[in-house]
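Hi V.,

You were right to ask for the full record rather than a summary. Here it is.
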Amino acid sequence: MARTKDRSRVLEQLAFGDIDEFNTGIYWNGAIELVDNFFVNAGLRYDQFLFNYEDQLEPAYRPQSQAKGIFSPKLNLNYRISPSWSIYANTGIGFHSNDTRVVVAQSGEEILPRAIGIDLGTTFKLAPNLLADFTLWQLDLEQEFVYVGDAGIVEPSGETRRRGVDVALRYQLRRWLSADIDFNFTDPIAKNEPEDANFIPLAPTTTSAGGFLFTPKGGFEGSLRYRYVGDRAANEDNSVVAEGYFLLDAVLRYRKPKFMVQLSLENLLNSEWKEAQFDTESRLRDELESVSEIHFTPGTPFFARGSVTYFF
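Predicted structure:
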């Protein structure tokens, strides 16, 4: 991480070092049918982390290392009411694997904050060829982390909670043509903060994805798919908004046992969109005071790409 001029000349190094992160884990998973059509799935995982960081800006410092282990249990319940209808409840505990620089800076304390999740849902067939899934869920994080670009650091920002609704539909229109669509609605909040300042920067609130997949005979196949992200808060009080986008992509391929020809079309509508977005203070040469506003990476415009693959 560095401050630069004209994106080429380095003015100041803010963060520069070598990172090594090692993770190994073991798990146990078991499933049992307690009574007819009532299934229980339980699991337990253990992860061991080793974090190493050597700060190249302070070469006199010795490499810093921290180790940490954590257990993550889960429990899933599923009851099949009929061949076309089932209900389920899933819960589990995971964790947030921190930036190694945060780990060594905190001397290994509170470096794997837990994530506690639960979801309740049902899966059912609305018609012989139409499958639907409806889920209510909640995710609590012991610690949320925010990347501060100008300082080149990751800082903790407290506990958060996300509650949401997911809706998924799968429809087999023909033997060679299928459609799917997912809707996701989320209410993300920072806990222990005032209502007018409890937004989680850049946390999505409305997303959707879906499209068509076709596989006719003769080796041809392809897809037409969209993805959507709604507007969302870019800072804690929602005074700066990160703009959402809608993108449409297509893929057409011809496949044979020995070769494949593919054409990919990205952003078919040639939409102007912002990919990475951050609320950051900046000041132009003729401005007296800095302004807090969106800094962004422009999204890819319409783009076509072809490829030929030969299988040995």
